[in-house]
TrEMBL record:
This is Glycosyltransferase. Keywords: Transferase. Residues 281-398 form the Erythromycin biosynthesis protein CIII-like C-terminal domain. Residues 3-66 form the Glycosyltransferase family 28 N-terminal domain. The lineage of its organism: Bacteria, Bacillati, Actinomycetota, Actinomycetes, Kitasatosporales. It comes from the Bacteria.
């Protein structure tokens, strides 16, 4: 049986699906990941098939506001829709669709008859429990949260509107709006498995049947992979350091952020590792080291804390390693995850990227490293995550779906 996992976006939107793909392959399925060219090496290194989705996220890495996100998302989905149909070949038996690809993948399923399953990294269904992830972390009350959630879905439908129209024309399907297709899927109880831990986001009781929170699926890395020797030497040369990294965020701001991070670390009396990322962080010194991409699963358990942009994957990885965070959210769903980390006590109050200073970061670092309560909360979350096997739950769901 052949499964196509379709996902697109930043590294954090793609990397977890390599681990999910490997779990499905071990269960006996042929697995192909359809994503953008940037992540072809990551997919192939996991031993999975690769199929190209025609869009480029590199030009969107410098977004700083929700308005920027909306503009970048509309451009991205238009590119994505132009060639999405080419990624689904004859012989595909099941589509696994991410948050970003589902609004297009539904139409592929209609045209081909291929069944599909949602595998989301973010909660998108309206609920009274929390506001939409794209609006930040401040609750509007149960009624306000649900109303805002419905509005957020309407905005997403607008973003996908042009791409959906073009895709349906190419597939020779009758016109149908993005909103109408979403309503159709909701009405049929289309199943969605959410790949995050219940310790961060318990399943809302007011969600419809078919929406489940199953636990994270983690990026794949080879069992024999080791940290670079220079990094091992640095880790062994003194107290546990703090990692500072902003992932795919803050492109072009590397020099300022690097200087700010080093000043903050030194004021807090901490050693540091700067992860270059799209920002291009870099610094030298006996108390600081610069690294590129390294597996979170190998590095994070060796740290005192992680300063990060609060992407869904990085937030979960810090908890998995039982390490507290200092969250510096930039945009999109990051303020939501930053708020969840603070809510469970594994991080102090978020430090918004727009107000980040060396003194503010030094103060947050002093609190998170000096107060054992943050580490205890992170360890408690890690124990919960250790028994939530999201990939296994997806494999079970796939088996049920294919037997039906």
């Amino acid at each position: 049986m052949s499964i196509l996992i379709a996902t697109a976006g930043s590294r954090g939107d793609v990397a977890p699906y390599t681990g999910l793909g490997v779990a499905l392959r071990r269960a006996g399925y042929d697995v192909v990941v359809a994503t953008t060219d940037t992540f072809a090496p990551m997919v192939r290194d996991a031993g999975l098939g690769f199929r190209r989705l025609p869009a480029d996220t590199r030009g969107h890495a410098g977004v700083r506001s929700n308005r920027d996100v909306m503009r970048a998302a509309a451009s991205f989905t238009a590119e994505l829709g132009q060639g999405f149909a080419d990624a689904v070949s004859e012989g595909t038996d099941l589509l696994l669709l991410s948050t970003t690809t589902a609004p297009l993948g539904w139409h592929i399923g209609e045209a081909t008859g291929i069944p599909s399953l949602g595998v989301y990294l973010q909660p998108t269904a309206p609920t009274g429990d929390f506001p939409p992830v794209v609006t930040g972390a401040r609750s509007l009350g149960r009624l306000g949260n649900r109303t805002a959630g419905r509005f957020a879905l309407r905005m997403a439908d607008r973003i996908y509107g042009e791409a959906v129209t073009g895709l349906r024309e190419r597939l020779r399907l009758p016109p149908l709006s993005a909103a109408a297709m979403r309503a159709r899927q909701e009405g049929t109880g289309w199943p969605v498995l959410h790949g995050f831990g219940t310790t961060l986001v318990p399943r809302p009781a007011d969600w419809r049947p078919g929406l489940e929170v199953v636990g994270p699926w983690w990026p794949h890395h080879d069992a024999g992979e080791r940290l670079p020797s220079e990094l091992e030497d640095f880790l062994g040369a003194g107290p546990r350091p703090v990692l500072v990294g902003f992932g795919s965020m803050a492109a072009g701001d590397g020099e300022r952020l690097s200087e700010l991070a080093v000043r903050a670390l030194r004021r807090a009396g901490l050693r540091g590792i700067l992860q270059s990322g799209n920002a291009g962080l870099a610094a030298e010194g006996d108390d600081v080291l610069t690294v590129g991409d390294v597996p979170h699963a190998l590095l994070f358990p060796r740290l005192a804390a992680v300063v990060h942009h609060a992407g869904a994957g990085t937030s979960a990885a810090a908890l998995r390693a039982a390490v507290p965070s200092v969250a510096v959210p930039v945009t999109a769903d990051q303020p939501f995850w930053a708020g969840r980390l603070a809510h469970i006590g594994a991080a102090p109050a978020p430090v918004p990227f727009t107000t980040l200073t060396a003194d503010g970061l030094a103060g947050a670092l002093g609190r998170v490293v000096g107060d054992e309560a943050y580490a205890r909360a992170a360890k408690k979350a890690a124990r919960h995550l250790a028994v939530e096997d999201g990939a296994a739950r997806v494999v079970e769901a796939v088996r049920r779906l294919t037997r039906a």
